[in-house]
Amino acid sequence: MTANRGAFTKDELKRKRVGVLLGGMSAEREVSLRTGEAVSGALRSLGYDVVDIDVGRDLPARLAAEKVDVAWLAVHGRYGEDGCLQGLLESLFIPYTGSGVLASALGMDKVYAKQVFVAHGIPTPAYRAFRDAASALAAADSLPFPFPVVVKPSREGSSVGVHICKTRDTYEAAVTDAAKYAGTLLVEQFVKGREVQGGVLDDEALGVIEVRAAREFYDYDAKYKAGTGTQYLFPAPLPPDQYARVNDVCLAAHQALGCSGGSRSDVIVTDGGDVFLLETNTLPGMTASSLLPKIAAGRGIDFPALCERLLLGACLKT
Q: Which positions does UniProt annotate for Mg(2+) 2 binding (predicted)?
């Protein structure tokens, strides 16, 4: 294992063993497996020495046994993109891809991320945070914004546990379901508009893609299951000023959280042209249907090149 804190050159990395950490124990395990398999295949096609490691409690022993020099993080959700895995790798002096401990922890918790966005003047929908389902239900008739609202677990990704409640009648069931997941609950004002996503790579705004889902909500199935009729338009067909504004907001969010490598932000553009940041993913998916690879491809960066570019930025962050 290496204790080198800095990024490597391509020649140096070709002489090192890259551990693609995938799977994990969160609700996003299946997506993580798909991301990891895609990344490891891409890196092998470029001649890197790659070993796949399914993340579990024996991870430190596996890293030592496999003599991993650099880690490519493909673990989504809790324990993977929330700072836990990053902290472990820091303590083992193993350089890794993506954001560091603090940026990962902030980005994974929707409530803390909201606080960062507000502090930096980044427009985001109004919200209330609740410590549990009981407090969220007690506030159903006193929310500072009208229905419809969006109910989210604070520490899940891939739209897991997210519900749009058009009326008070569906609120209780949504809160009860979202409360199954650990962490606080976020109840957010619903903002009607076009859903677009912006990608950032190494502090450069790559561009904006529009997702047109066949169903009303771009949920887990629409994101990851084939045949759902989802369309992806790159570049997003927005007026130039709105396109630039979305790029600016995504880059501002990336920098406000302190992200490294790649990030992907979800944004709503209203009919009036206002831009609202929903959230920023500090460890975006890298599957065949994932958005950061689609954005990068639109900019002429194919999938293996994107994986390699992220690998070249691997380092210790603290």
A: 279, 281
Residue 66 is labelled as binding a ligand: no
Q: What is the pTM of this model?
A: 0.91
Kindly list the domain boundaries of the chain, sorted by start residue: 10-97, 107-123+192-306, 127-189
158 is catalytic: yes
pLDDT of 2 higher than 50: no
Name the burial class of residue 263, with classes exposed (0-12), middle (13-18) and buried (19+) by CB atoms within 10 angstroms of its CB. Answer: buried
In this structure, CATH architecture of domain 107-123+192-306: 2-Layer Sandwich (3.30)
Is the domain spanning 127-189 CATH 3.30.1490.20? The answer is: yes
Concerning whether 104 is annotated as a catalytic residue, the answer is no
Among residues 28, 156, 188, 210, the one annotated as catalytic is 28
- Residue 155, pLDDT score: 82
My answer on whether omega of the bond before 148 falls inside 30° of 0, hence cis, is: yes
Catalytic residue among 26, 32, 104, 290: 290
Distance CA 5, CA 8 (A): 9
Rounded to 10 degrees, the C-alpha dihedral 254/258/259/264 comes to: -20
For 10-97, CATH gives: 3.40.50.20
